[in-house]
Design brief:
binds zinc ion; 15 helices; Rossmann fold
């Protein structure tokens, strides 16, 4: 007998954690941090009890913190078994877990300074030391290589096309003389994206967990490359600067790839492209280290010696001084910096400098959550607060909405269409309730499959 317990990503897109239990073996698929609403974030502080010591292993689908960021916290609770992931995920996590721990320590320091924590002194969720221990447990494996995750549970990774190293996890066990299998979608990517391969086609699984982030949405038609080209040409004509707030892992690399393509096609003039985020710079290095997972086009180019994520004048500015010097740049140029929603980071300095000038463009390429500066600008606010100062918004505000790394519901259904027969049961996870319900309706109507939307902490026999 096997069972699965849903310990996160139920009714929300964060906190992914699923415990697969078979005979005496227990593995956790994903180990994500809850993010967003306070009610969810509080769950990060509740310990997992004996599970931290009972787990035989963890298997990760990809590096995003909402799938991995709880790992150091679990290590703090005594977990010290192997953590399996793809090789690229391992390399990305080396930088992302340390960054996450750094942020946790900063938050605790800030709470102590302001005195708003119930706990005195306020403690971080985990420390850099915890993150280092977690990193030492990572075991990087290539796609397709079978491994024994725990006694009686074999697993392997398949390409999910979401970010570098992202994977579906397929796990199998014996039930008497029969083999049973389960597939965890992690985050399902989209076909025809730059750098990454298309999501692998899966033909069968006895049980399936499918994500539903965009279960009730369709991405707009149109080509993001055409949009970015138009914005660049218009801004250059005004002799302005293009500022792009972008997530450091995934989005920045995709942007660099597209800008390089546009330059190669002579569709835009050659100009300096600044990558001004230490995290984005490190993540780009990891992307460059793994050409074995690129798609055909990126492979073809990199075999010719072309650096696919570098334009003619890409300038990486890890240091603070070189970052500040970008302020002096008065010729048309492109500045890519984080955070993607303008909630913090170096992008705020660029915004304070460039936002008041009409000739410049601020270009959003990712989702802007409610309450962020990014959303305020998108909604046409004429003034926003940066570092305690009111800054006037006069620049052109642009949004390119088709850069998403998640499949929309039509793309999810297309991918499910690769299955040759219906899974015994399909669990819909990783979505706001409305999104999960809409995807469920579409799967039932379109494919006639048996589906289920699990609740938080629900255990189900397989
Ligand atoms: Zn993700």
């Amino acid at each position: 007998m096997a069972s699965i317990t849903f310990l996160g990503a139920t009714g929300t897109v964060t906190g992914s954690k699923y415990c697969l239990h078979h005979a005496d073996s227990r593995i956790l698929i994903d180990c994500g941090l809850f993010q967003g609403l306070k009610e969810l974030r509080l769950r990060n502080w509740a310990d997992m009890g004996s599970l931290a010591r009972e787990l035989d292993a963890i298997v990760l689908t990809h590096a995003h913190i909402d799938h991995t960021g709880y790992l150091p916290r679990l290590v703090r609770q005594g977990f010290n078994k192997p953590v399996f992931c793809t090789e690229a995920t391992r390399d990305l996590l080396e930088i992302m877990l340390l960054d996450s721990a750094h942020l946790q320590e900063e938050d605790a320091k800030y709470a102590n300074k302001k005195g708003f924590s119930k706990h005195r002194p306020a403690l971080p969720l985990y420390t850099i030391e915890d993150a280092q221990k977690a990193i030492s447990l990572l075991r990087g494996l290539p796609y397709g290589q079978e491994f024994e995750a725990a006694a009686g549970i074999r697993a392997h990774f398949l390409d999910a096309g979401h970010i570098l190293g992202s994977a579906f996890v397929s796990a199998e066990w014996q039930e008497g003389s029969e083999t049973r299998s389960i597939l965890f979608s992690g985050d399902l990517g989209r076909p025809d994206r730059p750098i990454l391969k298309n999501p692998a086609k899966v033909k069968d699984a006895d049980y399936l967990l499918i994500e539903s982030t965009y279960g009730d949405r369709l991405h707009p038609e149109g080509d993001p490359k055409t949009e970015i080209k138009r914005i660049i040409l218009e801004t250059v004509q005004r002799r302005g600067v293009i500022v792009i707030p972008a997530f450091a892992v995934g989005r920045t690399q995709e942007l660099l790839y597209r800008l390089r393509e546009l330059e190669d096609e002579k569709a835009i003039p050659v100009m300096p492209v600044y990558v001004d985020s230490p995290m984005a710079i490190k993540a780009t290095t990891v992307y460059e280290k793994h050409p074995q997972v690129y798609d055909r086009e990126a492979t073809r180019l990199s075999e010719k010696g072309i650096e696919v994520m570098q334009t003619t004048q890409t300038i990486f500015t890890p240091g603070v001084e070189e970052s500040k010097r970008i302020n002096e740049q008065d010729q048309p140029c492109i500045i890519i910096s984080a955070s993607g929603m303008l909630t913090g980071g170096r992008i705020l300095h660029h915004l304070a400098r460039r936002l008041p000038q009409k000739k410049n463009s601020i270009v959003f390429v990712g989702y802007q959550a409610e309450g962020t500066r990014g959303r305020a600008l998108q909604e046409g606010k004429r003034e926003i607060k940066i570092h305690g100062m009111q800054v006037r918004s006069a620049a052109h505000i642009e949004t390119i909405s088709d850069f998403s790394a998640h499949a929309d519901y039509r793309e999810i259904l297309n991918w499910l269409g690769n299955f040759e027969k219906a899974p015994r049961r399909t669990f819909i996870v990783h979505g706001e309730p409305q999104a999960s319900e809409n995807l469920e309706k579409n799967i039932k109507e379109g494919l006639g499959w048996e589906t289920y939307i699990p609740q938080y902490k629900e255990e189900i026999q397989l």
